[in-house]
Write a structure and sequence with these properties.
The protein is an alpha+beta fold. The protein contains twelve helices and 39 strands.
């Protein structure tokens, strides 16, 4: 709900309130964001006090208590007296660098806004507030877009900059959101890591100064995620005030939080200003990516539930919103590049009787692709490996009762390829400098329409040649030596962002041309796991690390923002390729059910007992997939605390069923006996646990459920609870 009047703008969701006010001299003040407050102008909280060395704008006259350096602002400028984190940085033709935005007008529109060429939450039942600010000296307007998804407790933000002047203006920085807090007692939680160990929660109090995370790698990255949390010092899973902010963007980003000299906090989130410079000619506009905000006064679990539900129901699009996903098997860890059609069919023949529904052919099916040194860019089927083409193999797979899918890496090119030999200028590389390779490949310049059209034309021909129901869209390097042969020198700062827009346009075209195909995003695993990609690909390969014990931590960190149905998770062979660790088939299966679920192995090479385990796992997952995907997710333990168990729980929306999963760590002599306290149940209902014991929900949540004593390392258990009518 949006309420507007006398320069006061109040946005209400079911449980939260967001408010701003056009104050003196047209400065748009941020008055409040937090638990719902009704019927009140909250600008009374803002104090006007003379602060030494905090300058005053000319309009303030002799009022030394009015300073941009002190006031909580809705969208901060720079160079005009506010020395805190800027949201907007403009370079004018005279070389000056400044931005000074003042209130001009507003409008309210029905439905949630959409962004051309960019991902965004959607919903005709939402509302949109547009507040227009202007920098009169620069001739630039900033339209601040606010989307209100009331039932989801989500407020979204985006900014459209428009050059209303007569000369070109350069945008050096344009954040998607600025959020000022009149308090200092907050922790910042970021989600950091590296390839094969992504999204580890890092929490600490904000100290004076700026703490920031981000990416300049061309993608959102393995190292940092474009989702952060601010919360009270004592906030935990079930208590405390917390705020989450997610950027719907898959390129360079920056999340920065500053604790100022006057003990206030400012958070900014948006495109990273490094190597970003966008030229706005007169009449042209630039739109920032969308940011999504959520607030919970009841702890981190509720914050996660709200993000999960909004992503499932208002970001992922049909036909995959709420729809079951097939249990798949991927051949990569079984064969790598060494396969032909007969080898693949044998894997599929071994997998089909085990309840596996989708066979995915990984890297090595195209061009001269027998290693990762050649072939990328040549998207034609390798006839030696696959005689008769893709349809011949797909038909044999379908005859087994399975769907057929394949891996591709459209954004990359090998120098040893027909494409590169014909079009070397289509790769991102700086003239006069040595090439910078990653996995022996270069990145294609997806900012160029002709590059995208060529690649997509080849992919469309391949996908149209057979019944392909799934594509894994991968990218296996970070960008470096970025320079586009299609842009003049003064516009090279647009290259990174234009490449992201090009990626989105190609994915959108693929969705239109193949509306029923499931697309899974991937970037060496979790190097591009962000809300922007989920608008186009309803699931993302969570990590290249398939070790079950490492995955417990990776999936735990991912869960703070992203729902289980988005996490690509598979059972792989042992010893594990990343760690050398051996874990039972049972435990590997329990860990992989914390995601989309599938296998990476040759089922013919496992024991008869393990085949029986796989058959039970696939049947169990299919039976409970709706609960796992659509239920509220609870983190019962923190795997980073190195306790004896890692445990999590899925509870149905009506609280009548739940699934509890537990994995033990390395065993020790005389292991402790634990009663695991569950969450989210109805305290008034009685629950049957695995078809036997009947206990009240209050007992299970307060007194707990006794866990078995582990015998050996890395044991696992699952408990299915049903309410007794």
């Amino acid at each position: 709900m949006i309420q507007c009047g006398k320069g006061l703008f109040t946005l209400h969701t079911r449980h939260t309130t967001y408010q701003m006010k056009a104050g003196a001299h047209g400065v748009l003040l941020h008055t409040y964001y937090g638990p719902r407050v009704d019927g009140c102008d909250l600008s009374y909280r803002i104090r006007y006090v003379d602060r030494g060395f905090s300058p005053n704008p000319e309009e303030a006259g002799e009022d030394r208590g009015f300073s941009l350096d002190v006031l909580p602002q809705e969208y901060s400028g720079c160079g005009m007296g506010d020395f805190r984190l800027p949201s907007l940085d403009l370079e004018l033709p005279n070389g000056s660098r400044a931005a000074d935005l003042r209130y001009k007008s507003f409008r309210v529109e029905p439905g949630k806004y959409a962004l051309e060429g960019l991902p965004a939450f959607w919903g005709e039942d939402g509302e949109t507030l547009v507040v227009v600010l202007e920098d009169a000296a620069a001739g630039v307007e900033a339209e601040l877009y606010y989307g209100v998804l009331e039932d989801y407790d989500i407020i979204t933000r985006a900014v459209k900059l428009i050059n209303r002047g007569s000369a070109a203006v350069k945008v050096r920085q344009a954040a998607s959101l600025c959020l000022d807090f009149q308090r200092e007692d907050l922790d910042l939680i970021t989600f950091d890591g590296k390839h094969v160990l992504e999204r580890r929660p890092n929490r600490g109090p904000l100290l004076p100064g700026v703490r920031s995370v981000g990416s300049v790698r061309g993608s959102s990255s393995h190292q940092h995620n474009p989702f952060v949390i601010l919360c009270e010092h004592g906030a935990g899973e079930d208590h405390g005030l917390c705020y989450g902010a997610a950027l719907l963007y898959s390129g360079n980003f920056q999340a920065a939080a500053e604790r100022s000299q006057f003990e206030n906090i400012r958070l900014t989130l948006g495109i990273h200003p490094w190597h970003f410079c966008w030229t706005l000619a007169p009449g042209e506009g630039f739109t920032t990516p969308e940011a999504a905000l959520c607030c919970s006064k009841d702890g981190l679990a509720v914050l996660s539930h709200r993000f999960h539900r909004a992503i499932r129901e208002r970001l992922i699009r049909d036909p995959w919103a709420g729809r079951p996903r097939p249990v798949l098997i991927n051949n990569w860890e079984a064969t790598e590049f060494s396969f032909d059609a007969e080898r693949l069919v044998k894997i599929a023949e071994s997998a089909a009787p085990l309840g596996i529904e989708l066979f995915v052919m990984d890297d090595g099916w195209f061009g001269a692709r027998n290693s990762d040194n050649a072939g990328l860019g040549d998207w034609t089927v390798n006839g030696e490996k696959l005689p008769g083409g893709l349809e011949a193999l797909a038909s044999r797979i379908r005859a087994l009762g399975m769907q057929f899918g394949l891996w591709m890496e459209p954004e990359m090119v090998n120098e040893d390829s027909a494409l590169y030999r014909a079009h070397p200028d289509w790769a991102l590389q700086i003239p006069g400098r040595a090439k910078v390779r990653g996995r022996q490949q270069l990145a294609l310049d997806f900012s160029r329409r002709e590059v995208r059209e060529h690649i997509y034309g080849a992919l469309k021909a391949v996908l149209s040649s057979a019944d392909v129901s799934y594509v894994k869209w991968d990218v296996n390097r970070s960008l470096a030596a970025v320079w586009s042969a299609a842009l003049p020198p003064e516009r090279q700062g647009e290259t990174y962002h234009r490449c992201v827009l090009g990626l989105y346009s190609m994915l959108e075209q693929m969705r239109r041309d193949f509306p029923h195909m499931l697309i899974e995003g991937c970037s060496g695993g979790g190097g591009r796991f962000d809300a922007g990609m989920l608008y186009y690909t309803p699931q993302i390969w969570c990590s290249d690390n398939t070790d079950a014990m490492d995955r417990l931590r990776i999936q735990y960190g991912t869960s703070f923002c992203y729902p289980v149905c988005t996490m690509g998770a598979h059972v792989s062979a042992v010893p594990n390729a990343q760690t050398g660790r051996s874990v039972s088939m049972e435990t590997r299966g329990v860990a992989a059910m914390h995601g989309t679920f599938g296998y990476e192995m040759d089922p013919a090479e496992i024991s008869p007992e393990e085949r029986e385990t796989v058959l039970r796992q696939t049947a169990f997952f299919k039976e409970h997939q709706g609960l796992i995907y659509q239920g509220d997710y609870y983190r019962l333990t923190d795997p980073f605390q190195n306790g004896p168990y890692t445990a999590w729980e899925h509870v149905s929306p009506d609280k009548r069923e739940a699934l509890v999963s537990v994995v033990s760590g390395p065993v020790q002599g005389g292991p402790p006996l634990r009663n695991l306290r569950l969450k989210g149940l109805d305290p008034e209902l009685c629950y049957c646990v695995n078809g036997e014991s009947s206990l009240p929900g209050s007992a299970l949540m307060e007194a707990g459920w006794p866990l078995p004593m582990p015998w050996g390392d890395y044991q696992s258990w699952q408990f299915y609870l049903t309410a007794i009518s």
